[in-house]
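I have been asked to look over a protein record a colleague put together. This is what I was given:
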Amino acid sequence: MLGALLALAWLVPTPAAAAAARPALPEQVRCESPDTRRVHCPMDTSRGVVLVRQLSQNACIRDTDWGVDTLGVWVARGCRAEFRARPGADVATRRVVRCESSRGRNESCPVILRGAPVRLLRELASAPCRRGESWDVGRNEIRVSRGCKGEFEIGDAETGFPPGARLLECESRDRRRRSCGTTVEREVVLVRQLSTSACEKDRTWGWDAERVWVDEGCRAEFAVD
């Protein structure tokens, strides 16, 4: 009998062994609600979860269109977004919403702002995104028009945007001048030249408050602050 009990104990996994056997859950997922259905996406939620990039025109409001349980996140009502495990205190997290004007139409992208600042992170199409002309902010929405398609960063109502520069790649194709829309608050610095053509400030690249521009085949990564 003692031998049988010892054999049974050997076969039953310990809590530590069972935990080690479980596959690690991802720290970032893309979760989508097709046809407004509720969908669950497994991820690590032990430290909390933040929505880092809204991909849908439909609203993504916590506890209404998405939420968290011990095994992952859920989305519903057409919400599509990227979610990430809450980082440590020393890691900046950016909250990004994608908003697009299809065929030049006026579009509204619902987002909970509560007085939070909004800035253009990058354009996603050739049509320019200019604040007050082709994009703007409402009480709890981002509005786009005239073909503007962009990714917009939502800051914090009290502390503003996370510190540090954002990386932006801009390319002059066929040696033509091109503007890459983004909100510039302080300065732009060339980080890495990616083209064989020279990238020389004020000759083949430059910037203003709403964009970085490149010319004559310059292609590079820029730090925007």
